[in-house]
Amino acid sequence: MYANDELDSLLKVLLQECIELHQQLESGLLQLEQNPGDQEAVNSIFRAVHTIKGSAGLFDFAAIVTFTHVVESVLADVRDQKQAPDSDLIGLLLAACDVIGVMIDRLIAGRGSLSEEEQRNAATIEIWLQHRLQDTREPAAPAVAATAQAEAEVLPGRAGSGKVWHISLRFGADTFRSGFDPLSILGYVATLGKLVNVTSLTEQIEPLAQLDPESCSWGLELDLDSDASREQIVGAFEFVRDDCKVTILPPSCQLQQYVEFIRSMPNQELRLGEILVASGVLSQVELDEALHTQSGDAEIADARKPLGEIVREHAHVDGSVIDAALVKQNQAKVARQRESSHVKVQSEKLDALIDLVGELVIASAGANVVATQHGAAQMIEAASRISELVENIRDSALHLRMVEIGETFNRFNRVVRDVSKELGKDIELQIGGAETELDKTFVEKIGDPLTHLVRNAIDHGIEPAEARLAAGKPAKGMVRLNACHDGPHIVIEISDDGAGLKTERILAKAVEKGLVAANANLSQREIHQLIFEPGFSTADQVTSLSGRGVGMDVVKSSIEALRGAIEIDSRQGEGTTFRIYLPLTLAIIDGFLISLANSFFVIPLDTVVECVEFPAQQFDSGYLKLRGEVLPLLDLRSMFDIPGSRARRSSVVVVRTVTTKVGVIVDALHGEQQTVIKPLGRLFGGLRGISGSTILGTGEVALILDVAALVADQTRRSREGEAA
Amino acid sequence: MNAGQRTVAMGDSLTIYAVAELRNKLLQELATCRDLVLDMDAVAEVDAAGLQLLVALKHQALFDGCELSLVNHSAELRQALELFGLNSFFGDPQLIPAKE
User: Fold this and answer.
1) What distance in Å separates the CA atoms of residue A572 and residue A574, rounded to the nearest whole number?
2) d(CA A92, CA A76)
């Protein structure tokens, strides 16, 4: 028996695997829907369900086992082409896939059972699936007829009189100990007909030093030329059935069966030729000849023909059999490469590493300070070399947390499919920049806002087909997800080719709700921003998609919580693009250190445009004329109630937010500073304008300014001031 | 015959009952000798376990860079090798008596 915690960690791994399989299942189903003849997709779906069932069985999760069993049976029918994967069936399977997902989620949450409603839902789907099963079980006769017809398609160019059976044997380790001797079994088989070709899979036998001589590791591939019936041949292996994996391919075997047989071979990297010989498609002689040709060619020309091609030319083996063997060989290779190029690491370990790197950054800043204080040139040089290296380590450590956004994007295939079906719109999802990398934390947290925006685009953005045609657009709507790097930001775009935002309606609504004054003179951009106000909705009727309490304000605040920003670019009649700007990372930033009196602040360096001297005569006007432009000023001293009066020579740091530029009045500039962001305690959770804190090399604490929030705050206050 | 060569005569049984003992014996032989010849004349009983042992021995010899050859195959051994398609695996010449 396993110890409890061992069992726990095993369970965790299995559940993690189940989540991945569940995703595979979903994407496979969507793929199948696009391309109903895709046998590879069917296989992948089937494997996923089968493995989930197996894993659940290991841990006695009866509910999952029962449910997946039904799904598996239906899929087996699809695989065997007894059922066509029509859109009804796919819809049903997708629903089943969701149920499996919920079941897995429950297990992860530690509560095994479903709610009553979920149970009812699962039961309904199960009944529907059972119906589909019975549909195929009853009219069995025509299916058999079809197979019989197909069997006429015998493998061309096969050696022998067309009564050669191919038998594949893999003896279990206990064969000898159970008193069986493969030799005598083989001897008996030889009495049934003529053994045309026997191949022992000697490579499976360990060298003597590692061999357990009483354990059996024989594998045999035989071709038997015989008139015996299938029962007689099967009978030869009657007694070893439990110990031995027997595969028998009849003489009139279809091409497809050879292909499948090759695919079902244990995942070793066998040489193509051996696979072909083993599967009886080619004889050893034919292979030898082909091999000979290959090396002969090499002497003449440098370009070596792939063995597969030569075999095809010489022995007239059907291409698809060779292709299957080639695919198999490649799969084994790729699988091995993948294993060696990726290491799975628990995210906590990574987080711990990044924490440590953060401490290292602080410590090296401290060393720098001390070195500068001592003024020893050599020491300063050493310290700066160290901080350079630490910077590199910081970057690579943060890079470890980066994941591609593609997987997140792909999930939206399902969302778009479901929502557009629900609304009866025909919509295509395009995905771009799937390889853009961003911090794993973002990937987890960006899902909900993205879903909301995509749903919005489909629900409000894209017009019904008639309206689109009337406007001269194709009937099929388009939603596009795109991601790219832009300087210090990652930009995620959600765009549609719909009607665009209706500015008049938004304005009217905002006035009605008292969000803006009736005579306010707002720019296009400002009007668009209004949809992010709490409680704002222009949808004329509440559909199942809109009006569920999650508004655009929530989208905005959850993006701002990630230190990001969101922007709208909308053209009437042409479509709308939402652009989400996210910082590259959450944990460590390059900061710009400033101070007022004794308080230190850090401004994220990538927002700093320039620093200018604060002109003494421009005192309390609240703005600054900078090269002919008006620059609004933020007075941190009054905002944060910092004691003391303004220093004689103050400076202004010009910072850029996504939408605007402002100047921050400060007493002193201290320059660049690598900043490890430490979250503020819960006590300060409601604090606006401060996004975190950091520890300086001197040990002092500095607050990190959230400039965007400060600006928003200031704007709001001044508006209120105007209104009053 | 060169100096490093050693010929070992195998017993009459090359079966599951003998393989454990044979394994240890052959491992020892292989460890002390670069060119091992096995005289298979006396082998009267062969089974798959015995053949497996021979295959493993060949693998070990290849692995260690030793020569290994089988000589004087008995009829029983020849049949068994034939049946399992192993003739070319060992690559030893087999003398077939004229009377067969």
Assistant:
1) 6
2) 15
Q: What is the mean pLDDT of residues A455-460?
A: 84
Are A186 and B63 in contact (CB < 8 Å)? Answer: no
A669 or A83: whose pLDDT is higher? Answer: A669
For B83, which of A176, A190, A214 is closest by C-beta distance?
A190
Note whether A546 and A525 are within 8 A (CB). no
Chain A residues within an 8 Å CB radius of B47: 181, 183-184
Residue A331, min C-alpha distance to chain B (Å): 27
Q: Work out the end-to-end distance of chain A between its first and last CA atoms, rounded to an integer number of angstroms.
A: 74
Contact A207 B20 (CB under 8 A): no
Encode pLDDT of A496-543 as tens digits.
888 888 888 888 878 877 777 777 777 888 888 888 877 666 554 444
Inter-chain touch B60–A220, beta carbons under 8 Å: no
How many inter-chain contacts (A to B, CB under 8 Å) are there? 81
Query: What does pTM read for this prediction?
Result: 0.46
Nearest CA to A387 out of A376, A399, A395, A375 is that of: A395
B60: closest chain A residue by CA: A207
Write the pLDDT tens digit of every residue in A488-507. 678 999 998 888 888 888 88
Residue A197: list chain B partners with CB under 8 A.
85
Between chains, do A199 and B85 touch, taking CB under 8 Å as contact?
Answer: yes
pLDDT tens for each residue of A201-243: 777 788 888 888 888 888 888 888 877 777 777 777 777 777 7
* CA angle, residues A352, A358, A364, in degrees to nearest 5: 135
What's the mean pLDDT in A67-94?
A: 82
Backbone angles phi, psi at B66, to 5 degrees: -100, 155
Does the pLDDT of residue A284 top 60, yes or no?
no
What DSSP designation does A458 have? I
DSSP class of residue A471? T
Query: What's the CA gap between A100 and A45, in Å, rounded?
Result: 13
User: Which residues in chain B touch residue A198, judged by CB atoms under 8 angstroms apart?
Assistant: 83-85
Mutate to test the interface with A, among B25, B54, B84, B86 (most CBs of A within 10 A): B84
State whether residue A195 sits within 8 Å of chain B by CB. yes
Instruction: State the alpha helices, DSSP H only, in A59-160.
Output: 62-79, 87-109, 116-137, 140-151
Closest alpha carbon to A561 in A341, A713, A398, A709: A709
- Pick the closest to residue A550 from A453, A477, A431 (CA basis): A453
A274 touches chain B (CB under 8 A): no
Chain B residue closest in CA terms to A177: B16
CA distance B12 to chain A (A): 17
Find all residues with CB under 8 Å of A189, minimum gap 6, and list them.
A167, A195, A222, A224, A233, A236
pLDDT band per the 50, 70, 90 thresholds, residue A601: very high
How far, in Å, CA of A199 to CA of A220, rounded? Answer: 6
Nearest CB to B63; choose among A181, A186, A207: A207
B48 closest CB neighbour out of A195, A197, A218? A218
In Å, what is the CA distance from A446 to each residue of A218, A438, A453, B20? 54, 11, 11, 63
A616-623: long-range pairs with CB below 8 Å, 24+:
none
